[in-house]
Amino acid sequence: MNDIITTKQLTMHFRSCDALRGVDLTIKPGTVFALLGENGAGKTTLIRILTGFQKPTSGSCRVCDIDPTSQPLEVRCKIGYVSDAPALYDWMSVAEIGWFAASIYGGDFHSTYLDSIRRYELPADRKIRHLSKGQRAKVSLSLAIAHDPELLILDEPTSGLDPMVRRDFLESMIDRAASGRTVFLSSHQISEVERVADTIAILHEGRLRICCPLSELKDSVVELTISLDDPLVTVPTLPDPAEVLREETYGRQRRVVVRNYQSDMHTVLTSAPGVAGVSARDLSLEEIFIAYTDGSSPSRNQEHPAKSMV
Ligand SMILES: Nc1ncnc2c1ncn2[C@@H]1O[C@H](COP(=O)(O)OP(=O)(O)OP(=O)(O)O)[C@@H](O)[C@H]1O
């Protein structure tokens, strides 16, 4: 089956900043994909390009086999999309906005929408402008999923939802993926994402730092605690394919977050002069995210004398 989203060297240059810098991304159908990134990382910009609301400065992309740059309306008919600030017609009621959208999509849209607003216990005759933030979020979600899109793109989908609704909603995303549809989530709620996503991408300052299955990411990153006889001891450089993501020194302890750490490297480290011991621990997704996005990330495969890391 074709990838549901592909981007090639996607770049977005605004006057004051580079929001995206050569993003290459592929997303397989039938997955819950989560895009993580700090404030200003470029997540919304990427979503706006994928949904045809923004033209990239350079590079290309395809969404559901359509180029959103040249066919924005076709893409938007095919996908479901909830932005981080959904724009709804305030003067319509919850029921009216459903009829309105159903007139565009047809099919089972209206009955599915009604089921959804009933499930969310939304007041059908209340005007959108009189709804709470969470109720508006539920209307947006109901509209986005009512035509059963093969791709659902959600920018901060659970903001404004109470914990019970968040949990049910996220679990329903797993069901969607199990039925072959794709869910693209952009979120700051890393612990929530960790429960539902099968693929994770981390965007940092407009660059895609990593994109891989969550289980692979968690299995491949560890934090080493290296105990040194002296803080000035030089720790051997880890060879390829190791990638040092972050390191900190606390007196005679060096903490190094590393991807693709292997057993032969462990032997080299533990037998290095001045190294008293090395222990490794697994990290949560949140800790991995911090390692990838923290400004102190060292460049790959450098010699790391302690004095340079304090
Ligand atoms: N229309 C615009 N004109 C100029 N700069 C913009 C524009 N849109 C976004 N930017 C800048 O591009 C960068 C990326 O913004 P974007 O909204 O994509 O980040 P984000 O990852 O979604 O952040 P957040 O998590 O805070 O929503 C930011 O520095 C932002 O100021």
Automatic annotation (TrEMBL):
Signal peptide bounds: none
Protein name per the record: ABC transporter ATP-binding protein
Organism: Novipirellula rosea
SUPFAM superfamilies, alphabetized: P-loop containing nucleoside triphosphate hydrolases
UniProt-listed PROSITE patterns: ABC_TRANSPORTER_1, ABC_TRANSPORTER_2
Keywords for this protein: ATP-binding, Nucleotide-binding
Domain ABC transporter: 5-230
Gene Ontology MF terms: ATP binding
Top-rank taxon, per record: Bacteria
InterPro entries in the cross-refs: AAA+_ATPase, ABC_transporter-like_ATP-bd, ABC_transporter-like_CS, P-loop_NTPase
Pfam families the record matches: ABC_tran
ATP-binding keyword on record: yes
